[in-house]
Each structure stands twice: as structure tokens, then as C-alpha cells.
TrEMBL record:
Keyword presence, Isomerase: yes
Family stated for the protein in its record: Belongs to the HAD-like hydrolase superfamily. CbbY/CbbZ/Gph/YieH family.
Gene: pgmB
Keywords from the UniProt entry: Isomerase
Entry's EC annotation: 5.4.2.6
Protein name, entry field: Beta-phosphoglucomutase
GO molecular function: beta-phosphoglucomutase activity
Amino acid sequence: MSHPQYRAAIFDLDGVIADTARFHFVAWQRLAKEEGFAIPHVVDDRVKGVDRMASLNIVLEYTDRGYSQAEKDALAARKNGYYVELIKALTPADLLPGAGEVLHTLRAAKVPVGLASASKNAVPVLQALGVLDDFDYIVDAATVTNGKPDPEIFLKAAHALGVDPSLCVGFEDAPAGVTSILSAGMFAVGIGEKDLLADAHEVFPSLADVSLARYFQL
Ligand code: G6P
Ligand code: MG
């Protein structure tokens, strides 16, 4: 099926544009280790698309110790410090396959491009990857009240781009993100494994496998 009628593209960041999931996981692992427990590898998938505090709550499922909200705030800040340290090493080589090409093609075709990421580190990450200027609008994660799977973040991006959600294509690597796109009434493209992202309209292993001409007039 071909859908060349779409007018805007809205991307998730971690796992779609940037190879940063491993850094989030390493930072959580370090935090857990310092707190005296270990986290299994499934946490890597479980925290995808999940905001910082909700991710911390997932991590803390693996310890019996209880933490007050103030302690949790401190833990989340500590993890973020480790993450910020790790992303200093990011370069354009950490763009996921096809991401740079897709962004440049959309830019050349004058298709509005938005970012709908739960990450409060989105701007420095895009900067380090050298693609900050390829985005017309970046949702400020700090202003989002309801995280994915709620549609709020994708709707905010569509609104700012001035494009009706039904004319937007959303790209996501996390099931919660796909649900967010679908609830926003957009066309959902999953990036990753078909089994995990079965709800998406279409799924491709990476952005390098996506043919933009199916959705946009190039
Ligand atoms: C993305 C990642 C999550 C991360 C969240 C918040 O959605 O997939 O793993 O927890 O962003 O990131 P932040 O940089 O704000 O801690
Ligand atoms: Mg993601």
C-alpha cells in the first residue's frame, strides 16, 4: 500500500534516530550496582520510551529496599548525571542506520519534521549527532503531562508543525510509543522487531529500510 498523502513526519529519538538505549541502560546499571542490586537485561526494553522517573520505578522493582520520593529524585538525578557523561561521547557515527539520509530527504522535500521524545536530553543528543537543524519542532519533554502511551506528545508535535494528526506519520521503536502514535490518529511506522511492534501499521528493521516515497511527495 502506498500513502503519498502524508504531510509531516514525527520521530521518536532513542532507538529510532540515536543509538542511545545502551547508554540509558549502562547508566541505570551503574546506579543499581551502587545501590547494591543488579538489573536484568530485560530492563533495557522495559524502559524504552518511558520517562525518567517511571524508568527509575521499573529499575527499583529489582530491589526490596524502599525509597522516599526525595531519595528517588536524587537517584534519578544521579542516573541522569551518568547518562549525560556517556552521551558526551556521541558523534554523527551514532546516528542509527538510515536516520541521517531520511532526515535530509525530508528536509529537501520540505516535509515538516518533529521530534516527540520523552528525553529531557533530546537537544544535546541531536546536537552531538549533527542533526539538530533537521528538526522544525522538538517537543520539550518537561512540558508533557502524560507520557507515552498517551498521545499527548505526538499531538503536541503535530500541532506545533501545523499539520492535522491524520496527515502525520510517526516513527517509534517502543510499543508504548506506537500506541501513542495510534491514539493520536497518525500512521504508525515501527522501527525494530515485528513481534514487539505488531500494532504499528508497518514495521521495518531500521530507517534505512523505509521508503519515504510511500508516505510523502518527494
Ligand atoms: C527515552 C528513552 C527512555 C528514557 C527517556 C527519558 O524515552 O527511551 O529510556 O528513560 O527517554 O530520558 P531522559 O534523558 O529524560 O532521562
Ligand atoms: Mg525510543
